[in-house]
Amino acid sequence: MRQKVKYFRESINLVWRSAPGWATANIIISVLRSFLPLILIWLLKGLIDGITTAASATPGSPVVNVLWLILAVVIAWFLDEAGSDLGNFVRKKQSMKLEAYMYGLLHAKAIKLDLINFERAEYFDSLARASREAPWRPNSILNNMVSMFRGLISLLLMAGLLTTLHWTLALLLLVVNIPGIWLRLYYADVLYNFQRKQTPESRKAAYFNWLLTGDRPSREIRLFGLGNYFISLFNKSFLKTKEEEIRIVRKRTQIEIISDLFKAAAVLITLLFIARQTINGSLTLGQMAMFLLAFRQGMVYIKELFSSLAGLYEDSLFIGDTFEFLNLKERVQALQPVAEPVGFSKSISVNDLSFTYPGNPTKTIDNITFEINKGEIIALVGPNGAGKSTLVRLLCRLYDPDSGSVKFDGTDIRNMDPEKYRKFFSVVFQDFMLYNLNAGENIRLGNIDEEKADTKIRSAAEATGIHELIDDLPDGYSTAIGTLFEESRELSWGEWQKIALARALFREAPLLVLDEPSSALDADTEYDIFSRFREIVKGRTSVLISHRFTNVSLADRIIVLNKGKIAETGTHKDLMQKKGIYFTMYSKQSSRFEK
């Protein structure tokens, strides 16, 4: 319960921070509306009694005698309706503000969390639950609290009115609704535990849905005729969660119907009592209508009160998923004493570095030591799974190692702010991003802080051989590329890779990392880029990962990785003379082309 109260407090704080003015307006309107039903019932009682008295005393008397009561009823009704409409607008506006605010919190958290989280299935479960609940749960807590407060005020007013007739009617009103609140609270726990347990299955259904509707898988789905197969997998996964949920809801509905029978019995008892009192002359027609409406409204308000209370309980369960995600810790942070990276002047040294992916029994990087000097071109080669891409992520401090260190000009990079340290790197990843933006913006993303950089963008495009193609597009560098939006131009995979290379060059960072930068380039473009590679990198310290040994041979030093360890190191000439792993791999590749 202490945890739930904490979540209530934090949720209300989120609502207040997102839109304090709209939250205040929501509360004021809701409280004022809680008094209007009693005023309306009291006015209706007076109107009915006034009409009855006028009709009995002087049949045919003008309606002007009760005109002020009619006008009062109409005004009260209008205020109630207008308050409802205005309240809906205020809640909608507040909800929009909160939704944007919560997405901002989620996105800010997601981009700060350590990259290693994307290697864990439980992270995706947590993200899926938070994304589902965060945009609206805090607002639901506020609305349920306001609704509960409004319902409590209105209920007390109606119960007080019924007590003037007989105290048992007010007691009956309360007692018959207790089973409903117990039922809602009980099944709130059942449904929450079920949905939390089914999160992995729900994500699986979402994945199959993406396979059936997404752009990237669309070609293989059609070529291999996989559509019906994935439809069956989606249905199996989707129905597995929904059928069980429907079973729970069906059982709850059956019990709710029994509970409704008790409420109907309470209504019957009340009607009989009020009818008897009216027939005996103890109540006027106006009083009869007033008490009947009071009992009916009391049933509505107690249901609203208990529903809000149960809603709060449900919210306290589900909002925990949001705070669970928002409270995840970022471990890749600057450790004390914090050092300020001011420039790259000497070298990056890797000392006894080891790293293991979550759930992997073997080390991906196993006790590696080497050094990269300023201005050097270093090539990393080795078979698939040797740890080359992982090593690059460790150098960029996207991961922290299990043991060992990476030192930047003699300072451990764990003592540096990760964001400031990463500004010294420009990287083309093997699985580089395709941004559905205009061509110039795609390149400028390499250094988004540099706004007026048309000349530099063009220079980067020319260096990678993509300038002419961009220049020939309908709007040149302002042409949208990709297939996601209208009036855009799709590029080939090789052309996208040239864009990614231009983006990395535009960054002008002192350290350039290229992970398979020519895998999709045509032979002419690849030859052109690597024949003037030193001119393109302009003296930057460069790390090149490639399986094409004709490209890596230009490096000042080649590091051969095998099973997470350094197997060999040296120049192309040195390694060929050693006749080790590099010699074997180079010879096999060369002989294939010679044939």
- Strands in their spatial order, largest beta sheet: 6-9-10-3-11-12
Determine the mean pLDDT. 82
Number of domains: 2
CATH architecture of the largest domain: Up-down Bundle
Query: Fraction of residues in helices?
Result: 55-70%
Largest sheet: 6 strands, mixed
- Principal-axis shape: elongated
The CATH superfamily label of the largest domain reads ABC transporter type 1, transmembrane domain
Strand content: 5-15%
How does the SSE layout of this entry go?
Elements: H1 2-18, H2 20-33, H3 36-57, H4 67-112, H5 121-133, H6 137-163, H7 167-175, H8 178-197, H9 199-213, H10 218-223, H11 227-279, H12 285-326, E1 347-355, E2 365-373, E3 377-381, H13 388-395, E4 403-408, E5 411-412, H14 418-422, E6 425-428, H15 439-444, H16 454-464, H17 467-471, E7 480-481, E8 488-489, H18 493-507, E9 511-515, H19 523-531, H20 533-537, E10 541-545, H21 549-552, E11 557-562, E12 565-570, H22 572-578, H23 581-594
Parallel strand pairs: 3-10, 3-11, 6-9, 7-8, 9-10
Antiparallel strand pairs: 1-2, 1-4, 4-5, 11-12
Helix pairs in contact: 1-6, 1-12, 2-4, 2-6, 3-4, 3-12, 5-12, 6-7, 6-12, 7-12, 8-11, 8-12, 9-11, 11-12, 16-18
